[in-house]
């Protein structure tokens, strides 16, 4: 028996990343403008970094409670109440995690039994389906399309729900499309979840990065608070990807179950990052708003740029991605991305990395300087023109 044969079937069941080879090439090339990564180009604001330095000076170097520092959970509860109008008890309904990534994994492992199905609208964040599979569940993709602004509808969900469906995993504002859902669309999904008695995992990591009106928090909808595992974090809105800090909020049973796994696998999120996160929530609002308004300018630049190039493009309403259609070039997403990289040294992510319904698109992150974005647009325009 080879070593490969001894790997767990759950891990084997996860398809290899289609873009790994592509980004291996990017890493070795010089002069590439990469709009590939989903990461703010800003450095974490200084007052947040300083609070961490000061925390270290004061000797904050130990483990915290498994749930996270109570002071941080109290701040999370305060901000969630202010922004979403939903109240969570910081003592038993909030868990601080190592990024939203860990929270997603814990949520799936806490609720799924082998074979349970999870509805996952796609294109979606690359980890969603993998987390379901690793937890023994079965991801059921729900394709969304540009004609409907990449919104998932109850009709689509009704067609795919079965007696084995346990949960629905949504992420709006959406990575990779930038789509959002309105309050009434979310209310229809809430009614669907209640009708089929589903748990809803709502990844709202981009909640603060919306450009047209306020974001609606899923757990603020009537009857949804206890049915929802609400996930949020600091990576995107506060430019804190490397700090690895996020949180989950739900009823005490779900949070208790997630904490059980977390305490045996992670113990706690790093105290340094927790101290910085308190500062972000207390005093980070104005810096965050500055970053959001900068993303908004870049969003417009990219939208106009792609439309001038002649690529159909849905106007993203949130996050920091734009998802133009490359269908008219006759190339697949991967062919387009590879040929663009070779010809013009611009790296984008092939849309099908986010699910089959992403075929025919590419994802560009506009979390990059306006100068980089303008240069990238020029190069993409030249490439598309040559294709004819
Ligand atoms: N959820 C979505 C939709 C994301 O796009 C990402 C990162 O790109 C994450 C979760 C992971 O975030 P974190 O850095 O908090 O683990």
Cofactors, ions and other ligands in the entry: pyridoxal-5'-phosphate
Classified in CATH, the superfamily of the largest domain is Type I PLP-dependent aspartate aminotransferase-like (Major domain)
How many beta-strand segments?
Answer: 12
- What number of domains? 2
Give the termini distance in whole angstroms: 52 Å
Radius of gyration: 21 Å
The fraction of residues in strands falls at: 5-15%
Shape: globular
**What's the CATH class label of the largest domain?**
Alpha Beta
What's the CATH topology name of the largest domain? Answer: Aspartate Aminotransferase, domain 2
Output the number of helix runs: 13
Architecture per CATH nomenclature, i.e. the level-2 architecture of the largest domain: 3-Layer(aba) Sandwich
Class of secondary structure makeup: alpha/beta
Rounded mean pLDDT score? 96
Major β-sheet profile = 7 strands, mixed
Low-confidence stretches: none
Task: Please bin the fraction of helical residues.
Answer: 40-55%
H and E order: HHEHHEHEHEHEHEEEHHHEHEEEH
In which order are the strands of the major sheet placed?
Answer: 2-8-7-6-5-3-4
């Amino acid at each position: 028996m080879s070593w490969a044969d001894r790997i767990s079937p759950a891990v084997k069941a996860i398809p290899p990343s289609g873009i790994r080879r592509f980004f291996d090439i990017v890493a070795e090339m010089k002069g590439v403008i990469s709009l590939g990564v989903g990461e703010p180009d800003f450095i974490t604001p200084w007052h947040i970094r300083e609070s961490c330095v000061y925390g270290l000076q004061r000797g904050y170097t130990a483990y915290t409670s498994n749930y996270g520092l109570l002071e941080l959970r109290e701040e999370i509860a305060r901000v969630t109440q202010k922004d979403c109008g939903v109240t969570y008890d910081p003592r038993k309904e909030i868990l601080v995690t190592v990024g939203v990534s860990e929270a997603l994994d814990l949520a799936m492992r806490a609720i799924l039994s082998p074979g349970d199905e999870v509805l996952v609208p796609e294109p979606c964040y690359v980890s969603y389906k993998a987390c379901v599979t690793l937890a023994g569940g079965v991801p059921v993709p729900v394709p969304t399309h540009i004609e409907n602004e990449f919104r998932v509808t109850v009709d689509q969900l009704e067609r795919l729900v079965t007696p084995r469906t346990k949960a629905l995993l949504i992420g709006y504002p959406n990575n990779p499309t930038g789509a959002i859902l309105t309050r009434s669309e979310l209310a229809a999904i809430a009614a669907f979840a209640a009708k089929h008695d589903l748990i809803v995992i709502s990844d709202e990591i981009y909640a603060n990065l919306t450009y047209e009106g306020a974001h609606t928090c899923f757990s603020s909808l009537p009857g949804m608070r206890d049915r929802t595992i609400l996930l949020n974090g600091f990576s995107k809105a506060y430019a804190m990807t490397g700090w690895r800090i996020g949180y989950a909020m739900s009823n005490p049973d779900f949070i208790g179950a997630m904490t059980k796994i977390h305490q045996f696998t992670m113990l706690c999120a790093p105290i340094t990052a927790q101290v910085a996160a308190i500062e972000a929530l207390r005093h980070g609002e104005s810096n965050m708003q500055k970053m959001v308004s900068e993303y908004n300018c870049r969003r417009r630049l990219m939208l106009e740029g792609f439309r001038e190039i002649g690529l159909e493009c849905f106007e993203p309403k949130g996050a920091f991605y734009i998802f133009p259609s490359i269908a008219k070039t006759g190339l697949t997403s991967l062919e387009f991305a590879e040929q663009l990289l070779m010809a013009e040294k611009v790296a984008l992510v092939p849309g099908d990395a986010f699910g089959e319904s992403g075929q025919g698109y590419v994802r560009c992150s506009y979390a990059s300087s306006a100068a980089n974005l303008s240069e990238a647009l020029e190069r993409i325009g030249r490439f598309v023109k040559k294709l004819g």
